[in-house]
Amino acid sequence: MARYRPIILEGLLLQEGRQPVLQMADGGQWRLLAQGRQDHLLGRHVRVEGVREGHDIVAVDRITAR
């Protein structure tokens, strides 16, 4: 698995504890490393652009509502 690969994902933005997670349509989940607050996007379908940093981790560059 290559590390630090650019990635674009779409799914439902949720929160587990203090960490935002992206729930995919196929049931998969990505943990998001994002700066700032995304409270206004929780529970919405979003597009996440960032860099894959591990098996299920994305360092987020941008989150936009779909």
List the helices and strands and how they pair.
Layout: E1 5-16, E2 19-23, E3 29-33, E4 45-52, E5 57-65
Parallel strand pairs: 3-5
Antiparallel strand pairs: 1-2, 1-4, 2-3, 4-5
What is shown here, in short?
With 66 residues, the protein is an all-beta fold.
Can you walk me through this structure?
There is one protein chain. The protein is mainly beta. The protein has no helices and 5 strands. A 5-stranded mixed barrel has the order 1-2-3-5-4. Strand 2 and strand 3 (about 30-35) form a beta hairpin. The model has no long low-confidence stretch (mean pLDDT about 95).
Mean pLDDT score? 93
User: Which value, in Å, is the CA radius of gyration?
Assistant: 11 Å
Note poorly predicted spans: none
Enumerate the strands of the largest sheet in spatial order, edge to edge or round the barrel. Answer: 1-2-3-5-4
* Rough outline: globular
Strand content: over 45%
Helix share of residues? under 10%
Structural class by SSE content: mainly beta
Distance between the termini: 29 Å
Question: H/E order of the elements?
Answer: EEEEE
Largest sheet: 5 strands, mixed, barrel
Count the strands? 5
Q: What's the helix count?
A: 0
